[in-house]
Structure to design on (337 residues):
């Protein structure tokens, strides 16, 4: 059996994408073992995310702070809030990250706390999961940002998303509203759906996995609505103010949340876009005729180099890594020809 401190360090490496295949399997088996394990993992993921946002180079301080929190949490349950306060004080003193402090706020007495606006961000090439105050589970894709209150009040549960996320909404009498770009909204009571709304794309896509949702959008200064059924996707073109409703393969559209990439007769440009988000790279298409290609394949934990090699062998498509002298460039550029 893995010791707690060893698992803490393993989880930090897991969320940083540094575990081996065997270690990844061990972590995933531990996560499905109990709800308590998943709760601890979410705490560790939040602390690790906070460290990434702050660009703290040394992981030693993070692990030291985390160890202090867990040692305090093992003390008497009756002093739980006081222990968490002292432990998180030490973590915050090391990290200086508002995200960590916001995470701690969730453990205060809901009757005594003020409503705080929380924000969770994902780094390029990374995903993260968060549980909202009502129990709704959200998985964020690469380079995404979700804002939500520390507790929901009134007749609506409202959040705001920039980027991509998959929502598993807990059903209750209050509407759940996801605000996205250009005042567009997805309104539900309890269902599962995917929203993609990256600012640079100028498009909002909503894919419904189960239940029913209402997508509303602005066009010519007026608000319009589209009712969706499972297996449908709404594509909202912000510049034109128009929407397209079509049937899609939900598994293909949402496979990213499970760490997979599924392509079924998928246009090559869309394939490259998925790889772009997954591996934080930028593809430059040098041969326009490649846009006519489409692919069917499934990838799980393969490295990018292995995936590109599969394309080369199957379709004679070549990739060239561009040597960039600018060390401040965030993404590796890859030419495709």
């Amino acid at each position: 059996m893995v010791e707690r401190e060893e698992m803490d360090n393993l989880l930090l490496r897991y969320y940083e994408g540094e575990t081996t295949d065997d270690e990844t399997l061990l972590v995933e088996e531990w996560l499905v073992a109990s709800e308590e394990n998943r709760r601890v993992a979410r705490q560790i993921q939040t602390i690790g995310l906070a460290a990434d946002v702050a660009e703290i180079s040394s992981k030693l301080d993070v692990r030291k702070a985390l160890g202090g929190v867990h040692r305090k949490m093992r003390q008497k349950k009756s002093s739980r809030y006081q222990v968490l306060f002292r432990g998180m004080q030490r973590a915050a003193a090391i990290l200086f990250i508002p995200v960590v402090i916001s995470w701690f706020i969730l453990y205060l007495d809901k009757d005594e706390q003020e409503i705080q606006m929380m924000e969770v961000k994902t780094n390029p090439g990374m995903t993260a999961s968060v549980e909202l105050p009502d129990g709704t589970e959200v998985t964020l894709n690469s380079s995404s940002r979700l804002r939500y209150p520390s507790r929901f009040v009134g007749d609506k549960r409202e959040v705001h998303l920039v980027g991509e996320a998959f929502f598993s909404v807990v059903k209750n009498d209050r509407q759940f509203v996801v605000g996205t770009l250009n005042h567009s909204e997805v309104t539900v009571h309890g269902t599962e759906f995917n929203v993609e709304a990256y600012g640079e794309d100028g498009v909002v896509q909503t894919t419904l996995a189960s239940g029913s949702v209402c997508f509303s959008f602005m066009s010519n200064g007026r608000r319009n609505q589209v009712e969706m059924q499972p297996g449908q996707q709404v594509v909202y073109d912000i510049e034109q103010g128009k929407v397209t409703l079509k049937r899609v393969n939900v598994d293909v559209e949402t496979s990213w949340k499970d760490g997979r990439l599924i392509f079924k007769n998928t246009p090559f440009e869309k394939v490259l876009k998925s790889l772009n988000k997954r591996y934080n790279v930028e593809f430059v298409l040098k041969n326009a005729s490649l846009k006519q290609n489409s692919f069917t394949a499934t990838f799980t934990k393969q490295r990018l180099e292995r995936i590109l090699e599969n394309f080369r062998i199957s379709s004679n498509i070549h990739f060239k890594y561009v040597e960039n002298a600018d060390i401040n460039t965030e993404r590796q550029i890859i030419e495709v020809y």
In short: Residues 1-113 form one domain. Residues 53-62, 76-112 have pLDDT under 50 and may be disordered.
